[in-house]
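Sequence and fold:
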Amino acid sequence: MIAHWVVKSTRRSELIDWYGRVFGARVVHDDGQVTFLTWDGESHRLAVVSVPTVFRYLFPLAKLRRKMLGLDHIAFTVPTLEGLLEDYVRLRKQGIRPVWAINHGPTISLYYEDPDGTRLEFQVENFPTPEETAEFFAGDEFAENPIGVNIDPDYLLSQLRNGATQELLRRREAGVRPGRKIVANKKTLNFKTL
């Protein structure tokens, strides 16, 4: 389990607000240079170290670094599909939308980016046990499409609310609206999703 992570940013206030909206984070310490945030029983989950705003102008492409090098994203498991989709609705109402929604096969995942471009994945497991997930990884379906199928979270939510079974909703194409083209595997990758 991740205890915490630390980011350096010229956008301290924006990050505090964003993580407050996403996780319900609250400030537990702020001395103007470093801000500690938490949203559960841990003393701190995230620290934001302030760097001078001039760095934003000295390194204008720094937000794109993740697309090429270093840490790509941090993933968080949500216990239920309902929880994942209700969080999606809550965040959408606050203007926070995923940059990528995909059924990878082992998981259904929604990716969000904070104001600095740090990517967070919120996922729900598609299989009830690690053994079943391992079987999927070893199977032909995953070998043929290790990335997954882009999904529409609003469509998936409407099916859930209309009584579709969990088994049906966890199928890779379940989140694709009827009549829409299925975007799968490497075709899911573009500048926004990378």
